Amino acid sequence: MTRLIRFNKPYDVLPQFTDRGSTDSPRATLSDWIDLPGVYPAGRLDRDSEGLMLLTDQGRLQAWISDPQHKMPKTYWVQVEGTPDAAAITALAEGVELKDGLTRPAKARLIAEPEGLWARNPPIRVRKSVPDSWIELTIREGRNRQVRRMTAAVGHPTLRLIRAAIGAWTLNGLGQGQWEDLEVPNIPGPPRPKHAPNRQAIARRHAREEAEAKQEARASRPKPGKATSTKAGGTKAGGTKAGSAKPRKPRKPRKG
To answer: How far apart are CA 50 and CA 184, in angstroms?
Structure first.
């Protein structure tokens, strides 16, 4: 039976079950929070980011969720330094030029601090002289550290990043470090061609065209015993011209 779970990843947790860097590393991994063999993350979430992760034990479902070609929207709550103006929000929505190209159109808006938000450990860096604010940002692509680079490009570095939703799945009602099972969706199959060829209809048409060609060939053949032309001087059925006779053989001279 296929399993799909959602997990609220805490800050400073690697988005994998083992630390490939070192066997003696003290860094926390998913195995410190999830004791469920056989499931793997469907997509990543940086170590210094928090929030929603989806995990499953089915490879096809994992690929469907994480593949950027499906353009599954991902929504983030972003605490940034300063207060973005309308121009900065518009730039985030219309596209920001990064080193790897222009970002795709997104949804961006200023929001109040999300209700019921847990405290981060350790807390963010705070500067008394610089205010901070929250942005809700929804993107449909997954470049490396994209959200952080986008807010920095418009002049507002990210202080805290929380993924709030992946497609229709959200963090609602899920505490930090908690996970729970989800209903497994029906994955759409590969699209069929809009004009798929009907092989039986093609075979019937070829057979009909072949029969018509044979019938035309039989009709165009001359019938035996008839002249091919009725004009004067034409050829008769016997193969001689009209009005002509066979040449006579010379007579042998008589003896004596």
So the answer is: 23
Active-site choice (12, 19, 46, 57): 46
What is the SS3 assignment for the chain? CCCEEEEEECCCECCCCCCCCCCCCCCECHHHCCCCCCCEECCCCCCCCEEEEEEECCHHHHHHHHCHHHCCCEEEEEEEECCCCHHHHHHHHHCCEECCEECCCCEEEEECCCCCCCCCCCCCCCCCCCCEEEEEEEECCCCCCHHHHHHHHCCCCEEEEEEEEECCEECCCCCCCCEEECCCCCCCCCCCCCCCCCHHHHHHHHHHHHHHHHHHHHHCCCCCCCCCCCCCCCECCCCCECCCCCCCCCCCCCCC
Whole-angstrom CA distances from 136 to 87, 106, 133, 162, 220 are: 15, 10, 10, 10, 80
Residue 167 CA to residue 65 CA, distance in Å, equals 9
| Tokens linked to 234 | 């034409």
Active site (annotated) includes residue 100:
no
Q: 230-250 pLDDT, tens per residue?
A: 444 444 444 444 455 556 666
Query: Taking all residues of the chain, what is their mean pLDDT, rounded to a whole number?
Result: 84
The 10s digit of each residue's pLDDT in 8-35 is 999 999 999 988 766 566 889 999 999 9
pLDDT of residue 250: 62
Closest CA to 146 of 155, 133, 137, 135: 137
Rounded to whole angstroms, the Cα distance separating 151 from 156 reads: 5
Q: For residue range 216-233, what is the model confidence (pLDDT) as tens digits? A: 767 766 666 655 444 444
Two tokens at 219?
A: 């009709």
